[in-house]
Design goal:
DNA-binding; mainly alpha; homodimer; 2 domains
Amino acid sequence: MAATRPANPLALAVLVLLWERPMHPYEMSSTLRERRKEDSIKVNYGSLYSVVESLMKRGLIEATETVREGRRPERTVYAITETGGQVMVDWLVELLSTPKKEFTQFEAALSLAGALPPEQVIELLGQRLRNLRFQQKAAEAVFEEARSVGLPRLFMIETEFTVALQNAEIAFVEHLLHDLRDETLGGFGMWRRIHELRRDGVAPGEIEAKIAAEFPDELVFAQHDENH
Amino acid sequence: MAATRPANPLALAVLVLLWERPMHPYEMSSTLRERRKEDSIKVNYGSLYSVVESLMKRGLIEATETVREGRRPERTVYAITETGGQVMVDWLVELLSTPKKEFTQFEAALSLAGALPPEQVIELLGQRLRNLRFQQKAAEAVFEEARSVGLPRLFMIETEFTVALQNAEIAFVEHLLHDLRDETLGGFGMWRRIHELRRDGVAPGEIEAKIAAEFPDELVFAQHDENH
DNA sequence: AGTCGAATATTCGACATCGAGTATTCGCCG
DNA sequence: CGGCGAATACTCGATGTCGAATATTCGACT
């Protein structure tokens, strides 16, 4: 059978750390913290220990010794196995070369935003924009500081990436807000009307009928509705 | 106590659907499919049924009737409760107004890419770029088709959003690849040297020492290492 | 010598996730 | 009219997630 791997990217981080040198779990978490990898990989005690166990079961890492230093609790030191090294490489290859759809909460919220009235959505997106700009300022400051300390860019590409994505989000929200305020976005009138009717306590079925009558051109795509 | 909610955004989708009108779970999944929300919300049978149960336990939705149509298996129809309506609004408000850090696999991979030699990373990012461009073409075609069918833009904002993010990713990878090929990216020499030494079978501890000696200026930030 | 908080190091269990499996029925085609 | 594939509708359990709780030690300061 092919060597399987855990789903959690934290397991990849563990493999990479053990590829550098043997370590015990707590040291992994502090190393990741020191290198600021917490910002790009979700590290979490519970997950760390179960991910290590899961890597053990699959034979990708092995316990080499248990040390007792002073009277601290016992620490188990792990090392990567040969299979583990291969899995690490394969995993990195896949993640770097092959884009995979990932779902964000904001995307979900956008797709469900129709359940709030348009004016409120405009208001909320305005707030988001202010928050995003604030975060952006903060991120750039951190960035600048890291550079001034002499941290090579190589160690910050993942941060550059998230900054790039954030900028794209800012531009998107700005653009969307503009179109919403303009009321030029296709479907806007229908959206507002639905919420007016709901506010006035019109029943769901009746709303559907009214909307269909009032906005025939915006619903041409929905012919399948006639089946019911 | 404050009304809690499940963590899975699919639960929000369920609330929104039931806010529109009562439904049974399978109908939820097909409605989401029809509206192409699968692309922006991870829908998954297992999760759907457990999310519905979880919403029930919290009193955000309630079972109104169980219908048997023909000799199909029994279907339980659910409706949203008043509390559920409030939770839905609060949840949407939060997601729309407040950006929250989300971790992507690619970000994790970027931050761990140092475990592969630079030449390979360049090669892999080249592949990624080709894949991204291909996907982009496909997405734009879907988009164009939707518009030609008369689907109002309002129903596609979430798609516009992901397209914007994808474009940002393409630009980022292009830029990064350029800097890598140039070898202008700070830390590049060190990175290559580490992999040369590993390939030649030099021991981890020795590698660290050699690197520290050969690249003193790129490691000025790492003074904490002297503690060990 | 005492204590307080930060760091070290891990466990636990409630909860969530998800794909594969099961069972049924409808509709179409020959 | 019979059979087969697509659609309907849901269940199950192995696995994964994660924060809170636990327990200890170190160092700084009183």
